[in-house]
Specification:
alpha+beta, Bactericidal permeability-increasing protein, domain 1, 8-stranded antiparallel beta sheet, 32% helix
Amino acid sequence: MFYALCTFIVLVFGFSAAEEVPLPPITLCKRNSVNFDDCLKTAIEEAWPQFIKGLPEFDFPPLEPINYESGTAIYEGGVIHAVVNVTNFIGEGLPQTHFLAVKSHFSDQIFHLEIDTQIPKITGSGDIVGRGNVAGFPINGKGPFNLSMEDLETKWIIKGPVANDIWTVEDFYAAPSIKKVRIYFDLIRGNKELNDLAVNVVNEFWPSLYRIVIPAAAKAWNPWLCDLTNRFFSKVSFTKIFS
């Protein structure tokens, strides 16, 4: 689900400036001004409610709830050796997003953004297919899962070249930190006691497990984030978005 969390703020810039989309008046920012980054932060905060509702004219879905159709990640390290596929994930909580800071840099025709956000709580559910071994428990099955995450803080690092007045995002790194997680899954079919034991182990030791899985997860969802943002940025003028 973090795939989607990390794309939305980038799209705010484009939609808030694109002439084709009717939006209420918001703060306009000049890239050469000394307070450009602070101005961008203000513009994001003003435009965010529009993205929560969705923008069908750009085929941009509502963010509450958020719907993530499918994604696969491979984890090989520490106590985790598994292939995991998540489908039909539906999550809630994005309307409460806080934007903490924005930093931008444009050099050698490469535009670079860093955006810090905080979300109090995300809850969601979906389906999961897993094969492998997690903390000594064999995983080879599919079933439902649900989770609750609290106090998420994420820095989006987004960059790519500008050519012919088009910004192409080639790298979108996002690795959230989380203060609290609770998860339930049903992957060890036919053995509820062993499945519940595995769930308890994951919930007890999730910080250590999370540090192992987050690098692979960030690598897996990077192309997805780039593709999603470029669906918009490939169609608009860079100088219109970042005047």
